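dumping these here so i dont lose them again. two proteins, back to back, each one seq then C-alpha cells. dont judge the mess
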Amino acid sequence: MQLQEKNPQWALLESIDSPTQLRQLPVEQLPALAAQMRDFMVRSVSRTGGHLSSSLGAVELAIALHYVFDTPKDPIVWDVGHQAYAHKILTGRREAMSGLRQHGGISGFPKRCESEYDSFGTAHSSTSISAALGMAVADHLKGESDRWHIAVIGDGALTGGMAVEALNHAGVYKKGVKLLIVLNDNNCSISPAVGALSGHLSSLVSTTPIWKAREFSKTLLKGVPVVWDFAKRIEKQTVNFLSPRSSIFSTFDLNYFGPFDGHDIDGLVRVLNNLKKLDGPVVLHVSTQKGKGYKPAESDPTLYHGVGTFDPDCGIVVKEADKSKPSYTEVFSDWVCDMAQADSSLYAITPAMREGSGLVEFERRFPERYRDVAIAEQHAVTFAAGLACGDVRPVVAIYSTFAQRAYDQIVHDVAIQNLPVTFAIDRGGLVGADGATHHGVFDMSFLRVLPNLTVMAPSDENECRKMLTTAFKLGTPAAVRYPRGKGPGVPIEPGLETIAVGKSRTMRESTAPASRRVAILAFGSMTYHLADLAQELDATLIDMRFVKPLDRDAVLAAARSHDLLVMAEEGSAAGGAGAGVLELLSEEGVCVPTLCVGIPDRFIDHGDAKRLFADCGMDVDSIRAKILQRLG
C-alpha cells in the first residue's frame, strides 16, 4: 500500500491538513490522532529513513502546541529539529513525507523556505531559545503583544552553552515578552546526556516531592483564576524549595512549571491554555519517552535515532559489520584504541557524538581517558587545549559541521598557542540526506588559513590511519578530515606508521603528448573518485595528502610540465585547497591553465551523494567535459 493512498486506519489523521482543522477536533479525539500519527510516522520513515525516535516521543507535544496556540501566527522553533516530524505532518506536509530527505523532497529539519509554519531553520543544537527570544523581543519593540513565541528544546540540547546563555538573557524580561520555553525531557540525547546540568534535570524529574508538586500544580491549573494567580506566585519558589538543589530556571528568574507527563495530551492542552494567561518568559518542563509507541524504538532509542529504510513490522536488523572494508569512522575507532594502547598520554574527547564519532570501544577500554563533554564544542576544544598544557595529548573527535561552532577556540586557544591537539574531523564533504546544515564543506577553507595548523585529507583507509598517527606525533596542532562512509577498500597496514609532512604521492604519470598533458591534483576522497578518469585521459594523478602545508615542489613541477592543472576537492572551492594551489602559483609567478573542481559557492541541499556530486559538477562526466573543453 502506498502511503499517499487513503488508509482507513488513518482516517482521523488524513482529515487534518492544517492546524486550523486540528483545532476543530474535540480534545477527546486527540489521543486517537496521536496513535494514528505514530503508525503513519513509523511506516513513512521506514521507507525514507530519518530521525524517528525523537519525533515519536514528541507527538502529543506537537499536537498540543498546534491545538492551543494560533500557529503560524504564534511561531514554534524546534531545537535541532529531530523531533519535528509530527509538526510537519500537522502543517500540510503529510503526503510530502514520502519524499522526506530525498532529492527534491522536504527537508528532515524545519526550513523557513519550506513552510510558513517553520518559523526558524534548525538542525544544529541549542539555538531555539535565542531565536524565539529574538522574535519575542522584536514584537515587544514594535508594541505587538498578541503573539506567543515557543521554543521546544530537548534535555540534550539544553547542555549546550548557547542555550544557557539564552536562558540568562530571557530572565531579564518580566513583562511584555511572550516567550514559552518547552523543555522536552526524554533523558536521551543521541549519546547519553552527560554533565551536571543533565544530572540536575534527572533529579528534577525523578524526585518524589517534585512529582507530587507537579500533580498539585495540575490541580491548581484546573481551578479558578484566584487560585491560578496564587499558583503563579508560588510555583517558582515551590519547585526551588523542593528541588534537590536550586533549579537552574529559578536561578535565571524564569517562571518554571513541571515536570508534566508529555504524553498526557489532555493535561498538556489544559496546562498550555493556562500558561497563555501569563506574561513574560515561562518554562514548561515535560517528560517524554523517546521512541514512544513503537516497541523496537522504545527498547533501543539510539538505534532508531537516525535510521535508513527498514521493515516496520520487524524493525531494524543489525548486520555484522564488514571489517574487510571499514568506514572511515571505524578506521579512526581502531586507530584511537591502538594509539592509546601505545601512548598513555592520549585522551579522547567528543561533544556528544560518542557513537557517531566511533568512540564507544574507546570508552569501554579507556574510561579514565575519555570524556563526552555534551553538546559543548567550544568547551571541548579549549578543554583539550588545557589538557595539552598539562602534557596530556588530546584527540578531539568532531564532525566537520560542528567544528564550525568552535572556530574561535581552534584559533585562539589551540593554534595561537601552538598546542599539540589532534582534531579527527569526521563527515568531511557531502553527507547526503541531512543537507546544507550538516555537509562538511567548509573545514578545509577555514582551517588551512590558520598558522601552526597542519591539515591532512586521506584518500583511503590506510592513508587515514597513517595521517592520524602523523597528526598525533607532530607535537603541534593538526587536523585529519575524512568523509562519511566507506573508503575505496585499500588494506590497512598494521602498526602506527607516519608519513612525511607536506609530501604528496604520485599515483600515475602522464605520457600524453605536448598540449594534452593534464595533471590532476586531488585532495582526499577525490583521488580515487578520479582514478579511472586519469587513466582514461592519460593524466598525471597526484594524491596531495596535505591541504597545509602544500607540497610546493610537486605543485610547481606539475605546473611546469603540464598543460592544465586540475585541483579537485570534496569541499568548498571558495578558499579551499585548490585556492591554496592558485595562491602558490601566483606567489611563484607560474602561469598555467587551471581548473578548480569543488563545491560551488552556494549551500547544497539534501539528497543521495551521487546526485549531489552531479549537482555540484563533481561527477566524473562533468569533470571530463570541463577538462576536454579546456584542452580544446
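---- next one ----
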Amino acid sequence: MVTVAFNPGEELERFLASLAAATARRLVVVIADNGTEHDVVTAAAQRHGARVVGDGTNLGYGAGANLAAADLEEDWIVVANPDLVWKPGSLDALIDAGLANPAAGCLGPLLLNPDGTVYPSGR
C-alpha cells in the first residue's frame, strides 16, 4: 500500500486505522511524506507500523507515489489517497478482483462519498 501525504491532518490517521479491517492479508504500508506536517506523518506511521520515505519536500503526487513504491517487492501495489476510509474487506475484494482477472493491468475500486452516494471516479 502506497499513499502520498501532503499536509494530511487527521485524514492519514483515519486512512491507516481503516486498513486493519480492509484486509486479512499481510500488508506493507509506505507513506511518501510530501508536505509540511512531518511529525504528523511519522507519528501516524509509527502507530500503524508503516514506513515513511521522503523528507517532507513536495515532489508532486506521481513522484511521491513512485518513491514510496520503488523498493516494494509485493505482488500487488495499491496507490491510494490518504483521505480514503477503507470499508471492512474492501482491500481484499479489490485484490481478489485482480486475481480473478490476471490480464488486468490496473484496477479501481468503487468510491463512495461520505453520504454513501457513488463518487464519479474513472472518468
